[in-house]
Amino acid sequence: MKLLNKTTIYFISVSLVIFCLGAILFYTFFEIIIDRDINHKLHERKTYHLKQFEKTDSLLLYQRYSANMIYIQRTGRPETDQEILSDTTIYDDVLEEPIAYRQLSFVKIVHGKNYFIQVRRAAVEHRALLEGVILLEGLLFLAFVAVLSIVNNKLSKRLWQPFYFILDKIGKYKVDLAQNLVLPKSNIEEFNELSKTIEVMTDKIKREFNIQKEFTENASHEIQTPLAIVKNKLEILLQSPELSKDQMDLINSASVAANRLSKLNEALIILSKIDNRQFHEETTLCINDEIDQLYANLEELVKMKELQVEKNYGQRLTIKMNSHLLRILLENLVTNSIKHNYVGGKINIAIADQTLAVSNTGEALNLPPEKLFHRFVKSNLKSPSLGLGLSILKAICDTYSFQIAYREAGGYHTVSVLFNPVQPEDILVEEKKR
Fold first, then answer.
1. If one looks up domain 283-433 in CATH, what number appears?
2. For 233-252, how does the pLDDT look when each residue is reduced to its tens digit (9 = 90+)?
3. Which residues contact 284 (CB under 8 A, 6 or more apart)?
């Protein structure tokens, strides 16, 4: 959830709680004020009616036209100063429904006779007024929240615009292109501090990246040169006629170790370059054609192991990526299917639904499949393999957001790669460039 939406929800929630508490307090105080007003009006009516009683000779006639506003009855109780306030309901013949009243009851001597008198005032008007006020207050609150939310949304987007600009710049920043991240200044101090911190951090990352890149390049050159010399010297020694069998075995063992070290160096350098995004050039390539060419180069090796290769091309899969990395990816897939197969085994290559799947027969996997793409992990510990082939595949796929997966079923080991296909318009652009 976005920060703006979350703050808006918090604001509306707090406002709703405040409104509910305020409405309860308002309702309570309004009722108290209404009750006091009704009580005051009843006392005024009491004084007024008593004056009218003194002037008239027929109290019953006066009561008949009072519309339930007064009740008079002869009583034997003596006159007292005690007054009783109470609420009651009386059925109204005109409205045909019971009406709520507040009444003031007392005993009074009029023309020398004792009367029980009740002076009433309808409470319906005040209740309706109170309900109307609460309803109006609720509508005003909703309008207030709606307008304030819109204004807050517009204002927040404007105030947070530098922040979103910073996010966009960070998202597009590529340290491997040696870019200098320059963020604009804002009139908000916090955003300026954020921009300054990010610029310092990216400068530090760029320096460390350049140091690592330089180390990788130097290591590649400095290690490969002495290794080539060692391998050359060992080959010269192997051709010497004066060597005994034990000496030849030692030299051959050293030569194998040197070759292994050379391959390890090359694999680690490739992994480092992939991780550092040092392969920038991209071109449009057809997976089908690349695989056909690769198998043509490995035809002799396939024949030596008497392997049966079956190709099922359900589509022509065209992608856009670095040609060197694609060849490394395909070569690792194909050579693994040959290397880890047994004599007379089978290999199946399928392309469908933007996915390349290479399946081969072979021995059962003796390690968890999720560890297969880790570095220096091998199914067979006695294998001369470096255990870096699938980790290089994983690194290439991560670079281009391809999905790589492994499964074992029916005696076949299958490594599949889901590619991001090239759109037709991209192919037309590429052909125009050529």
1. 3.30.565.10
2. 788 887 777 777 888 888 88
3. 318, 319, 320, 422, 426, 427, 430
